[in-house]
Amino acid sequence: MASAGGADRSPPPRRLVFAFYLTGHGFGHATRAIEVVRHLVAAGHEVHVATAVPEFVFTAEVRSSRLRIRRVILDCGAVQADPLTVDPLATLEKYREAAVVPRESILREETEWLSSIKADLVISDVVPVVCKVAAHMGIRSVCIGNFSWDFIYSEYIMEAGYHHRSVVWQIAEDYAHCDILLRLPGYGPMPAFRNVIDVPLIVRGLRKSRSEVRKELGLEENAKVLLFNFGGQPAGWKLKQEWLPDGWICLVCGASDSQDVPPNFIKLAKDAYTPDVIAASDCMLGKIGYGAASEVLAYKLPLVFVRRDYFNEEPFLRNLLEHYQNSIEMIRSDFLAGHWKPYLLRALTLQPCYNGPTNGGEVVAQILQDTAVGKECISDKFCGARRLQDAIVSGYQLQRAPGRDVHIPDWYSLSETEIGAGPTSQNVATKETTALCFEDFEILHGDLQGLTDTMDFLKSLSELNGNNLESLEKQHTERTAASVLFDWEKEIYIARAPGRLDVMGGIADYSGSLVLQMPLREACHVAVQRNHPNKQKLWKHTQARQLENAGLAPVLQIVSFGSELSNRAPTFDMDLSDFMNGEKPISYEKAREFFCQNPSQKWAAYVAGTILVLMTELGVQFTDSMSILVSSAVPEGKGVSSSASVEVATMSAIAAAYGLNINPRDLALLCQKVENHVVGAPCGVMDQMASACGEANKLLAMVCQPAEVKELVSIPTHMRFWGLDSGIRHSVGGGDYGSVRVGTYMGRKMIKSAASDLVSESLTSEAPVQSDCYKGNGTGLLKSEAALEYLCNLPPHRFEASYAKDIPEVISGDAFLEKYGDHSDTVTVIDPKRSYSVKAPTRHPIYENFRVETFKTLLAAGNTDEQLSGLGELMYQCHNSYSACGLGSDGTDRLVDLVQEMQHRATSEGGSPSLFGAKITGGGSGGTVCVIGKNCARSSEEILEIQQRYKAATGYLPILFDGSSPGAAKFGYLKIRRRRS
């Protein structure tokens, strides 16, 4: 790609007319547009800005008769459900209303307007449709941006509105008419554009010095100043004095006239010039957008940011900031709770180091002038496939943040065809299935058990088997790779493992609680084949590596179906010798580093990690090459254990292929090691146990000490459980889950320490100790509590009577480490620089174990509304306890409230409820809600009503999990081979 750090400054031969179309999404677009407009106007040109942004934003900065503002709405940006979350479906539907339905009138009206002003060039930031208008009129067009709406909306399609995919196709086609993209730093994939010039940051210049600004605001030169630049603060939210470190002052941007602020907060005037205030501050707290990112980089101001859901441009800007040591992340719960101090103090230790150019406004204006008069700025033109490759390599692989998926759907990637050519029926239509089906395979071992998803998986294998080399270029990448993965004449081993619905227990698993888990209908299938290294089919790049290494070492090749929908690399391969350090397996830490090298292939840790764990824990030696195909119907990020199902299915299939006899409990524990040590997610074992040991239509009752199955509890026929996805992505690798786990282990250490002190006191004191804790209990009880291994073994009454009052609400990491040394958890690490909530995370598992025991007992009670009400009440209590720990979310709270409304509506009308309770599940912070109700038609109707009401409120239609299926152990495995003709 071409780049521009400067341009020919020769003046144009005449005054030019620019039509500048600007999206109304965020003021960052407006501030950079102003800088470009300023230079164009200063050069004597006429600029017509067409936008939904208020006129005063421009006229306050550029006062000239050559600037004209026309109000028009041609796109909608991103519709926000709250200040930190985009509503994907509402965005797609609003875009359809704004730009798709009136498209013909837009094309006609914009053609007339461009003719009326005699435009020489159309500029777009980054309104799609105007590129089409300009091309139709024979006018050149230039886009400016660090992202494009086709890429942003593509994930929204996958999350919320697949039926809106034509929206993305249309946007991509419109962009393809653009002559040049002027690409700003911090860019994401923009594959629709043919010609790209990279330009410097566009940044507004300073008007006043740091000293002048501080003097005007009455601030001392040495005062620590925080700039709070957070538009759209949560409703009813109040800033508090104690949120700042002692002696700090906070400048608040965009505060309303009615907003009261504490004495250490100062409301800035609405027309305050942000760059000056940035340069006068010591750090900034806000959200990441282009405007904020470019200005904190330019003026070397540390940024403390709060991540936003579905702001898909954010990961790329975040990477840019992190690269220049310019930012740290504040988790949302700490932001909302006011736990700011550790982050602000840490921000002062950053050393921002961006020294790149910031004259993007001048550079862009010169390129626009040159383009308007017909000068060729670039010569390289790449085909659609090359553009897509460039976008992926330069964009998400290098710039996306770990743990956050950025989506380029498979139906967007058009292989070798030109993306700008527009969709055809062949592009988006479903391929006709071949005549081959799963009956082309002999089932040498195992039983389909009537599972339709297993039949579908075998059918997909048959379709791969029917491929030929001539048709490969028409396949998705993953299917192309999978079609040459197996030797169809040899045995293939298949395992199946379901996701799980956390009915009760949740995050109390790692504290030793009883949990109740239901295996879902949705499951993951994994196919494994082993071959001698000299007979293994290898992909071309793998063959090249083998030749380079002058040997035939055992190779692992993995294909993951559905990977392109999550913007992962669809394939992964490695030499199995990479797992060895001499005669021994490499450490788990080294393996974690290995898989983190390439974020697009980090997913392979869940699959390949099972091999390393088998090598390390069981001493298994893998001398054969191995081919693995993964196909999962368990959706990711929904809190239903998609990762556990992958791990359990993979290890089960490998165990079958290599004749390893691993009992289901041990297999689950081994899979937990994959997630804890290879992937690096601090989960308990209940997910893997449910996936491995569960049975259809039964609740797996197990005690996580470390993993003992108590029994399989049949779900009474009069009741039913459903899962409703909130649409808020959940991850056990997330900061909230990990920090709550740390707080829980801190609380356990405090209890053990307090009990130990009391034991020592009782043994050294001549007189009986009369403390509240010791009274009536004796030394034996205290000794057992001093040796407490699992918090759930402490009864609630003992916690409240003896320890609760001394457990702090919050403690800093360094204070805890100084007093207690360590929290004795092998899978989490205490950060000395941050604060942890302790009391709520400690109380939760103690009470949750009691709730689950009670829940299990109530399941065996008689079929009455009182039974269901009691079960529902326990679920509501669990949900509230999650929230107290900081693991709630707006979406899951809304779903639980809707269930309560249904229940109370039936009661107020004098009838009997059909739904009785609901709770957040798994690791919390989003994901899925479990609902309990009667097994009747009315309850199903009410579940449907909840789905529709949630969609009406949020724009997202919740995925419904309804039904159960056998766990991996009950399924066993299939051994198949192609039938010989």
From TrEMBL:
Pfam families: GalKase_gal_bdg, GHMP_kinases_N. Residues 606-694 form the GHMP kinase N-terminal domain. Gene3D superfamilies: 3.30.230.10, GHMP kinase, C-terminal domain, Glycogen Phosphorylase B. Keywords: ATP-binding, Nucleotide-binding. InterPro entries: Galk_glycosyltransferase, GalKase_N, GHMP_kinase_C_sf, GHMP_kinase_L-arabinokinase, GHMP_kinase_N_dom, Ribosomal_Su5_D2-typ_SF, Ribsml_uS5_D2-typ_fold_subgr. GO terms for molecular function: ATP binding. The keyword Ubl conjugation does not apply. One of its GO terms (biological process) is carbohydrate metabolic process. The keyword Flavoprotein does not apply. It comes from the Eukaryota. Residues 491-530 form the Galactokinase N-terminal domain. Signal peptide: none annotated. PANTHER family: GALACTOKINASE, SLR1395 PROTEIN. This is L-arabinokinase. It comes from Urochloa decumbens.
